[in-house]
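To make the argument concrete, we let one protein speak, a sequence paired with a row of structure tokens, as a model reads it:
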Amino acid sequence: MRINKLLSNKGICSRKQAALWIEAGRIQVNGEKCIPGQWVEAEDDIRIDQRPIWQCEKIYLVLNKPEGITCTAAEDVENNIINYLKYPEYIFPVGRLDKASRGLILLTNDGDLAHQILAADNHHEKEYIVTVDKPFGEDFLLSLAKGVNIGKVTTRPCKVQCLGEDTFSITLTQGLNRQIRKMTKHFGYTVTRLERVRILNIKMENLPYGAWRVLTEAEIASLKK
């Protein structure tokens, strides 16, 4: 695999950070300076600053993300999620939850697991509680459930349940950019509050707003299945 992916999978650094280290000449493969995008094998001698690479302990966190925090590890983005957590080890968010939304977001240094969770073909469930700007009828929910044309794509059928005159839960199996906001906008509604409450088997379990916790061993095992 490419050197960037290997270092990310081992929890050492992000692929972007690996590219910066390569440019700076800090990574060597079999005694030679690593080149951008280089492919490596398991038996290769890979070193960072002359130190053999290491396998980091895997980290799995869940955060009840506040509104206003951006789900990116990019240091140049104001109010990014990494600066918010100030976690001492390298981690990254699994997917995204837009800045105006709140709720459950996973963070890890396990690149392989993150990829499996995000892979669209796996149809992994993500559940949200949504409030819109005016009351709706049953036809609105039925239309959401069938799938909505939001431009270049029609969303997959999904589960929808009424929770009040202007609030519903929706369970998606894809993660299109601002998907729920675009779906509701198609029918003339504007989202006023959007909260993710579940990814696969992971729930916040009364996690306070803005707080984070480490996943339990049972939760991690279930995710890896």
Q: What stands out?
A: The radius of gyration is 20 Å. The first strand starts at residue 27 and ends at 29.
